[in-house]
Design a protein that fits this description.
single chain; 389 residues; alpha/beta; Carbamate kinase; Archaeosine Trna-guanine Transglycosylase, Chain: A, domain 4; 8-stranded mixed β-sheet; 5-stranded mixed β-sheet; 17% strand; elongated
């Protein structure tokens, strides 16, 4: 294996990059993409592909079917329900098989096997399922198979959706401890200002980001250039933040740039590169899972004094600072911590169920036994299980 190639590469491609100018899934592009991935795979890199496009593939098939059958009823149903969740899920159910078939054929042309993995947020939010997903992915990589990963849009609803495949890609990259996350976009990378139509040099490409701060986040306010995808530059920068926190180099580059994967993996200056945090500054794996993978089951509101202590001293969350409780969480669930204005500034695993937090809020820990009938933990959330935003 070439010394310059990363050992494990996660590549994300979105709907806007997968589709041709007519809005159809571009089979020629997928064939080229598979060829590029197969090349670094043969050179010794573990490769994971995170892909969108199932809903678009399903809609394409439904449209062709309506035209073939000349069925006004079906066309009218599609026109009325095209943006509804059940219709999108039905389209995803049809399109997912078509999409993985296209990838399977494309990879087989290069002698590479691939495998379909469908995930929801709950799959990574539950610690046991999180570890099961990791073990499955690592087993596929050991078998020299390329996992083709997508959100399970056929069942995902708002409560269990990642929301965009950029976030899914970042979480998959951290799950398998990738060396590189490459996000293929419909633009060249992060711009200082949103690209302006008609200008040859849109707005100054940012080639290197050493740390994602408020200035970088502000730059990322633009949406996808095509308007086809569900994400945009903001979700890509957020994905870069998740990955770089875990020590993963991240690159955003134009997906249709010829040979882009070989260029990025060999270190050519392409797109926007986000440097990983130094080893000593990385967020521990357990806290990364708390921050990004688990789904909150409720929240507590704390007073300003408690917020200041949590932010400045790195202490545990005590009942004395809690002023309100929402949700029906149980001990061990993830909860959000909000300030009096309703802003979420921390997340953590609670030691107590919501019913008991309501009873002890505002109290000292030495009062717990008299109130609850037993002396439990001193903290509502221990600092080791608490992550600040």
């Amino acid at each position: 294996m070439s010394a310059s190639l990363p050992m494990r590469v996660a590549v994300k491609v979105g709907t806007s990059t997968l589709t041709d100018p007519g809005g159809r899934i571009d089979r020629d592009f997928i064939s080229d993409l598979a060829g590029q991935l197969a090349e670094i795979h043969r050179a010794g890199s573990d490769v994971l592909l995170i892909t969108s496009g199932a809903i678009r593939a399903g809609r394409e098939r439904l449209s062709a079917r309506a035209d073939r059958l000349a069925g006004p009823t079906q066309q009218e149903y599609s026109a009325r329900n095209g943006d509804s969740l059940p219709y999108k899920q039905a389209a995803a159910a049809i399109g997912q098989g078509l999409l993985i078939h296209t990838y399977t054929e494309a990879f087989s042309e290069h002698g590479v096997d691939c495998a379909q993995i469908l995930l929801t947020r709950d799959d990574l939010g539950d610690r046991k399922r999180f570890l099961n997903a990791r073990n499955t992915l690592l087993a596929l990589l050991n078998l020299k198979v390329i996992p083709v990963i997508n959100e399970n849009d056929t069942v995902a609803v708002d409560e269990i959706k990642f929301g965009d495949n950029d976030s899914l890609a970042a979480q998959v990259a951290t799950l398998v401890e990738a060396d590189l996350l490459l996000i293929l976009s419909d633009v060249d990378g992060l711009y200082e200002r949103a690209p302006v139509e008609g200008l040859a040099e849109p707005a100054g490409l940012v080639s290197l980001v050493r740390r994602i701060d408020e200035h970088i986040i502000a730059m990322a306010g633009c949406r996808s250039e095509s308007g086809v995808g569900t994400g945009g530059m903001a979700t890509k920068v957020n994905a870069a933040r998740i990955a770089t926190d875990a020590g993963i180099r991240t690159v955003i580059a134009r997906g249709r740039r010829p040979g882009v994967i070989a260029e990025v993996t060999s270190g050519v200056d392409v797109g926007t590169v986000f440097l990983p945090r130094a080893f000593s500054d990385r967020v521990p794996a357990r806290k990364r899972w708390i921050a990004h993978s688990a789904r909150p089951r409720g929240y507590v509101t704390v007073n300003d004094r408690a917020k200041d202590k949590l932010l400045s001293n790195g202490v545990s969350l005590l009942a004395a600072g809690v002023v309100a409780v929402e949700g029906s969480f149980v001990a061990g669930d993830l909860i959000e911590v909000r300030d009096p204005a309703g802003e979420v500034f921390a997340r953590g695993l609670t030691n107590y169920p919501a019913s008991e937090v309501r009873r002890v809020k505002g109290m000292r820990s030495d009062q717990f036994e008299a109130i609850l009938g037993y002396q439990g933990f001193e903290e509502i959330v221990h600092r080791d299980n608490l992550v600040l935003d």
